[in-house]
Amino acid sequence: MVKNNVTAVLADPEISDGGNTKTGEESRLREAARLIKIIVKFHPKLFTIAVTGAAVFAICTVGSSIGVRWMVDRVILPRFKEGQLDTTAFVIGACLVIGVGLLRAGGVVVRRSFAGKTEWRTAESITNLVIDQVVAQPIAWHRKRMTGDIVARCGVDSDASVAILAPLPFASSVLVMMLVSSAWMLSVDLPLGILAIVVFPILLTLNIGYQKRIDRYYALAQDELGALSEAVHESFDGVMVVKSFGAERRETQRLAVITSRLRNARIEAVAVRSMFEAAIDAIPSLINITLIVLGAMRVKSGAMSIGDLTSFIYLFTLLVFPLRIIGYLFSEIPHSVAGWRRVREVLDEPVGQDPKVIVNVAKSGVAISLTNVSFSHTHDNEVLSNLSLEILSGRTVAIVGATGCGKTTLLHLIGGLIASDSGDISLQAGGVGLVFQEAFLFAESLRFNITLDSPINDDQIANSLRIAECLDFVNDLTNGLETMMGERGVSLSGGQRQRIALARAIAHDRAVLLLDDTTSALDPATEARVVSNLREMSGSVPNKTTVVIVASRPSTIALADEVLYMRNGQIADHARHDELYSRNSDYRELINAFEHDRHG
User: Fold this and answer.
1) Whether residue 457 sits in one domain with residue 492
2) How many domains does the chain have?
3) What is the pLDDT of residues 494-525, one digit of tens each?
C-alpha cells in the first residue's frame, strides 16, 4: 500500500514539477501549500487519523469552557450566596468537565502518536525514494558528485522536508478551534467576542510576515549544511593524506569557513524568530488583560454573568498556546521547503542510461569482443581510439602498458561501469566480476563481505578463499567467517583486503573476472600462487572462467596465457610474454623498467 501511495505521488504532474518551481513566480505561502499537498499524499491515512484526533481536541477545548461556566454559575456562586451545595448541579458539572477532559486527552494522544508516525514514515519514504534514485544512476553520474552532498540529501534534507508534518495536525486543530471558539464567544458576548477574535488576523499576519523574512535564512542554512556534510566527508575520507602532509590546520580552517557561514545564517534566523516569538507572546497577553478589564465592566452592568466572563477568559487563555503552534508551523515551513528543494533536485534529475554492453552475442568460444571502441574523458583527451580485440573463453590474459595508456579504462568499459563514445562491446553470458586495486570491504562480517547476502554456501566460500590464497590468515581469525572486518576492512592488511575482494568475485561465479592490478599488494610468491590458481580455475570445466588481469609485475605477466600490450589507447601487440619480450623492443623496454622499479 505504501509503495502504491509513493507511486501515485510521483505520477502527479503538479508534484513532479515541484523541483522546477521558481520562487519568484509564486508566494512563499503558496509554495508551502504545495509542499504540504505533496508530503501528505505519502501516508494519507495516518495523517487523517492525526487530524481527526486534533479536531476532537479542538472541539473539546471549547467544550471545556462550557463546563467551567456551568461550575461557576451553577455550583460555586450559589454556594457562596446560599451557603448550600447543589449536588445535582455539581455532579453534572463534574461529569461534564471530566468527560470533556478525558476526550480532550484522548484527542491529544491520537494526534501526537499519529502525527509522529506520519512524519517519520514519510521521512522514510522520501529517503527511500532518494536512495533508489541515487542507486539507479550510472557510475558516470556518481563521479560528478561529492559523496557528502549525496549523503546530506538522503539524510539531513529528507528529514528537513518533513519537519512541517509534526505541527501540521495541531495547526489544523487550531483552525477548527478558532472557528468554533469565535462562534461561541460571539454568542456569549458580542463586544468581547469581537475584541477576542481580532487577535486571530493579527497573529496570522505576523506569521506570514515572519515566514517571508526567515525563508532565505533557512534556505541558506540548508545549503551550507549540505556543503559542510560534503566537506567533512571528504576530509574524513582523506584523513591519512591530511595527517601525512600535516594539513590539519588547513582542513580545520576550511571547515571553519563553512561552519561560520552556517552559523551566521542560523543566527540571523534565530534573531528573526526571537522577535517573532516575542510578538506572539505579547499580543495575546495584552488582549487578555483588556478582556478582563472590559469583562468586569460588562459583568457590573449585568450584560454577562461571572461564569460567562470566567469561561470566556479561560477559553481565550487556552487559545494562546495553540495560536503559538501556528507560529511554530510557519517557522518550520522555510526549513521544510529548503530541504524539499534539495531533495527534488535529485528526484527530478533523469536517470542516466547504463553503458550498453551486448551479452551472449559474442562468437562461439569468445568471452569478450570489442569492435572499434573509442573513449574520451574530455573532447581533447582521447584514452582509447578504435580499439578492437577478442579474448577467448577460459583464457587468462594480462593487459600490460605504461601508465595512462588506458588499461583501467578498458576494464571499466568491459565491466559496464562507463559507456564508450563509439564501437560495440560483446560478452558471453554469465556476468562480469570486477576487482579494483583499492579493495573495498564493508564494516560487516567476513562472510557478508564475500557473499553480500547472496545464497552462497560454505563450500563455495571455502573454494573461493582457497583460490585467492586467503585460508592462511582466515583460519587464524578467532571467529572465522563471522569476524567483523571494521570500517573499510581496517583490521586487515592491504594484501589481505585485496585477496578477500578477489575471493568475493570468485564466489559469485562470474563468467569473466576483471582484475585491475588486484595483486599489487601481494608478495611475488603469493601472487604467483594466486595467478596459478586462477589459471587452473579458468581452464576447468564447466567453469570456463575468463580472467583478465591488469599487471605490472613481470612474474605475474609471465604466467598469463596471453599478453595484450597497450600503447596510446590501442592494442599494439599480443602474444605470450616470452614471445613479446623477444620480438617487441618497446614491450621489452617496459618490462625491464618494471623489473628495475621493483629491485631499485
Assistant:
1) yes
2) 2
3) 788 888 888 888 888 888 888 888 777 777 78
